[in-house]
Amino acid sequence: MSENHEPGTPTVTKPMTEGPEKQRSGRTWRPHFMRKTLIAITALIAIGVGVYFLAIYPRIQNNQELNAAAAAAGKRAVTVVEPTQTSSAPDLVLPGNMQANQQTSIYARVDGYIARWYTDIGAHVAPGQVLADIDAPQIDANLRMAQAQLELAEANLKLAQTNSVRSQQLFQNHVIAQQELDTVLATEQVQKATRDNAAAALKSAQDNKAFEQIRAPFAGTITARFIDVGSLVTSGSVTTVHTLFDLVQSDPVRVLVHVPQADISSVRPGTPATVTVDEYPNETFAGKIARDAGAFDPTSRTLLLEIDVPNPDGRLFAGMYAHARFSLPSPTAALLIPDNAILIDAKGQRIVVVDSSNQIHIKPVKLGRDFGTKTEILSGLDPHDRVVQNPADDLHEGMPVSIQSTPKASPLVSSLATVLRNETIDIGRSSQLR
After folding, report:
1. What 3-state DSSP class applies to 112?
2. What is the pLDDT of residue 216?
3. CATH number at residue 160
4. 227 lies in a domain?
5. Would you say 233 and 134 are in contact if contact means Cβ atoms under 8 Å apart?
6. Is 271 a domain residue?
7. Which of 20-29, 51-60, 117-126, 213-222 has the lowest mean pLDDT?
8. Are residues 67 and 81 in the same domain?
């Protein structure tokens, strides 16, 4: 039943009880607000750090550099480098010229005309292979004449032998005198010598006949051909005759290297070497020192070495420019400095160093091996010395200097950029989750 209210009595409204949906919304709103607040505070902190390191810190660093420059005003600026200390010597790399194992030019031994040729450039030939034929009529005529002379000599010898037998029988029967018998026997010996001479002449003519065929003296590759059918060729000296072919044997190839006197004690015949060429930048070819010249070149004070490199596939060619690398043993640690830091003049071999007070000191040193861009220092240099590069002539003992260094990017800036990038990524991800 509903309650009856008297007229004029105010009506009291009771508050309604909150539903379950209203309570659940209130519980999720507070953590969401706290997450946004935390992200905003983190972003503000990152922005503040960024402003400090990007705007304030560079100014402080710039002021410090300006103060240092002002303090160094009036001082000579030099560039220094510290020695490189290594327990083993760097590899010795020397330039070399690649040559064939055997190489020759082929000439004619008889006069005549080229009848035919069988090989051209690039052809691989075997020892004794026929390269060309020469038509030499005079050689053929000399051979026929030699054969006829031998036949005549053999006939005369046969007649002299018959007379010798008959004269001996007549002498036994006391028909002829001893003098006549001796003459007949001597005639037989003369005819025998004549026959031997004719046989030798025939052998010479046969040898000349064989020279009508041009043959390869060894296995290799024809690199040049200078003849055609009908070309006139003559025998004689190298300066007066026409070259027929050039023959090269390129397996193995020889790499000729001039080794400085300071490194010759570590490089001996049998020492392994690695050869590289610019045409194959990612490949190395193994070889070993086969022989040396046995004497130094008095002009360059270098020793000529020959390195044999197997070349079964024919990828290396005679005439190539190569680099030979040798691994040199070093029993003690070596100090290396750039070549442009060494002074060599009438006072000897010296270097210029800067001490802890930024003052110049000049030290005499003893040089070791030269490795191209760096030189080994045997004595007179400490591992922690600061060596002046490209020292000028006006630097003197005790002179105050300032160290000139190449400016580098601060690692704090890079770290800050990484932090800001990560914070940006986190804020973006949070926004996507919301």
Report:
1. strand
2. 92
3. 1.10.287.470
4. no
5. yes
6. no
7. 20-29
8. no
294 within some domain: no
pLDDT for the residue numbered 364: 92
CA distance 94 to 316: 18
Rounded to an integer, what distance in angstroms lies between the CA atom of residue 313 and that of residue 83?
44
When pLDDT is cut at 50, 70 and 90, the band that residue 236 belongs to is low
pTM above threshold 0.90: no
DSSP state, 118? -
Give me the residue label for tokens 């490209």: 390
Residue 313, SS3? coil
Q: Using DSSP, state whether 77 is helix, strand or coil.
A: strand
Structure token pair of residue 100: 């064939």
φ/ψ of residue 357, rounded to 5: -90, 10
Alpha-carbon Rg for the chain in angstroms: 50
* 361 and 420 belong to one structural domain: no
For residues 180 and 165, what is the distance between their CA atoms, to the nearest angstrom? 13
pLDDT band at 89 (very low <50, low <70, confident <90, very high): low
8-state DSSP, 396: -
Round to whole Å and give the CA distance between 149 and 198: 6
Residue-wise over 119-129: b if at least 16 C-beta within 10 A, else e? beeebebeeee
CB atoms within 10 A of CB 226: 13
- The total number of structural domains in the chain stands at 3
Q: Classify strands 401-403 and 76-78 as parallel, antiparallel or unpaired.
A: parallel
220 within a domain of the structure (yes/no): no
As a whole number of angstroms, the distance between CA 414 and CA 146 comes to 98
Distances (CA, A) of 330 to 90, 317, 337, 365, 376: 9, 34, 17, 19, 11
Domain encompassing residue 428: 38-73+410-434
Which CATH number characterizes residue 81's domain? 2.40.420.20
Where does 278-373 show beta strands of DSSP type E?
285-297, 302-309, 321-326, 334-338, 342-345, 348-354, 360-364, 366-370
The single-letter DSSP state of residue 265 is G
